[in-house]
Amino acid sequence: MSSTAARAAVALALSAVLTVTVGSAANAAGPAAGTVSPVGSPLADGDQTGWAAISADGRYAAYYTGSPWWLDSYQLFLVDLATGTQKIVTGGGDTDMPWLSADGRYLGYTNETSTVARIYDQTTKTTVDLVPPAGTKYNKSLFEALGSDGRFAAYSVSDIPYGASQYRVRDRVTGADEAVVPKPAAGRTQGKAGVLGISTDGSKVAYEFQYEGTGPDKGDLYVNDRATGTTRQVDVTYNGAQANGTSTLVRISDDGTSVYFNSAATNIVANPVPAGIQSYRRDLTTNRTVHVGPELDAVTSDGRTGVGKENGLVYKLDLAAGTRTEIGNSKQHWYTGQSIGAGGKALLFTTNDKAVTGIDSWYPAVYVRRFE
Q1: pLDDT over 90 percentage in the chain
Q2: Which of the chain's termini has less CB crowding within 10 Å, N or C?
Q3: CA 85, CA 120: separation in Å to the nearest integer?
């Protein structure tokens, strides 16, 4: 989950982009795709950028960067997009994977130098380490996900870096800390658990399980119901069988009733879908799955707006209306699971595309694209 974000002042309006029906060819020219502005302060060439996140209300952004990249000296920034002010949350170590609560008050991340998951409260200016309770054998933790109101946080733990042995959920209010042990499907080769998502009330935890060995299906998705202690597989076929391709998690909805995921499987739904990786929504109440559209990088909790990619292009998807707007190429415009703010009116991304940055550089920077 770790990956490789702020550059010189450049703002530009993109014009004459294409609006098309989801899953079809272009059919009409649309309005300009909003305005693009840099996030944070200019950096020197050679600075390294990592994941960036935007709060659901569109007010705050978080990103980390290092200067220069080969020194592994990183700083995590929190930016108020309304005022343009930014603060350094942490520095002097390798920091990665920022995750913001819906209002931007809480910021979860991993300090990779010490391999400790943390939550920063920008109101009280305090930081809490997420480590297993005394007496457990695990001493490494990675931040995974934060509930929308910041109360519940999910993190993975192990006795070696990046070797998740179990997930844990911390109630930031009560201090309760409980384990969720990921398990593969019956008869599957043991593998490694991956990306997490958590509902606002902390009752549902969604996670990937990536399998070892050969075959087309090397990854499945599960949801653990912490209230009942039950776990169920999400990426099954329309008749409840094992799918024939690998699936990856996009998000679980805030209310814990829906899971959005990508899959290379061709038998998730009964009707044919376009070739390649496609996205789906599993309704955990009805246990039914519907095809959403092309591969998703991010989607809002209500499922109305997404960021997806297909045939080398990235699109803002209006999933309610069934339309899309081209916003870049997938080789130089990167979006994360927390790329959508203000109900789709603000998209955060990293890019080294000269058409956006105005300079030739291998190193990406963070920008916000606004649709008003």
Answers
A1: 51
A2: C
A3: 17
